[in-house]
User: What shape does this take?
Amino acid sequence: MNNRSSDDAALQTELLTILTDLIALRSDYPPGDTGPICAYAAGRLERAGYGVDTHTDVDPFVNIVARMGSGHPRIVFNAHADTVAVDEPEAWESDPYRAEVRDRRLYGLGAANCKASMAVQIWLAEALAASGAADDTGEIVFTFVGDEEALGPNGMGYLRKAGLVEPDVLVFGATTDNQLIIAERGVLWVRISTFGRSAHAGDPSAGDNAIERMMRLLGVLDRELGPRLAQRRDGEMASTTNTGVIHGGHNTNAVPSRCTVEIDRRLLPDEDMTDAFEEIAGILEGAGEPRESYTAEMLLGSNGFKVSSDSRAVDAFRAAIEARTGAPAVFCNAMGVSDGRHFAADGIDIVGFGPGAGNEGHAANESVAVAQLVDAALICKDAVERLLARDR
Assistant: This one.
């Protein structure tokens, strides 16, 4: 039986107010300006008693770090404050920048990904401060960041690199339907460029077609890499590749002298991004094309992570989920990548958790179930209290 209380209605009102405020503060990428929304969060957490610092490595990606308590465990919560841009405004049934509640769901851009988790974490920060949860032992840290939707280094990646956050436990907001992500694939983006010689299309033999060279290279990659990746699995996680972008040529009646493609390669937690790039480069080298006729470059990359299903953080969240819902926690297969990836090599507990379904993010009429907001808030608070209690 669900553990519900008469206080749920008041909590629901608080969460809806915060989330409504967040949706009205535009942070869509591009440009991904998180200044106003992070200022809102910073103001609330300062009033709650947190020490709050604002950090920006590259404009307009503003990040905040709010701390309370000291010592260990150091529990860091994270939610990205940016959203994708509205692609098709006409597909929205309401203003994407104005929250609207109907049929027990709240609609708006970022309602699920990831402003719902941000709202929950702002409420959680205030609730923990009011309860004195971090007064005795441990440090509670809340981070709200930008540059996540671009998979960029100027948000949580910058905070880690600069040593501004050093968690024992990292809880990142994610659209998990209030279940758990404890493993996530890495990501590698590769750009391949081919070069040829332009000529009139009426005499193609006088030129060297860069698009046709690219087709040959992609064909070799498909034949060589495809069967290898088909054998690489970790539970529901698969090792994959996808050609996502292609550009070539400038006119139909000309032999193209240049072509570029960008490839997305998803890595299992035990695969390394450098090795994965070298694997692609090695296949290209064996394709038989002149070496000076193409290049391959790594655009970005980060390794995946996998934590133990009985780690301290996972145990705390599993118990909190069961206490609230009356059902065992479920481990989710992460479709995308998160800011947890920046800590993949640090040997810490990393948990993804939050309200909202994965298919809601980046879609028109994005929404989140109101009841999930309430459950998420209470589960997070219970989990933190369990984590801190273990060290008292």
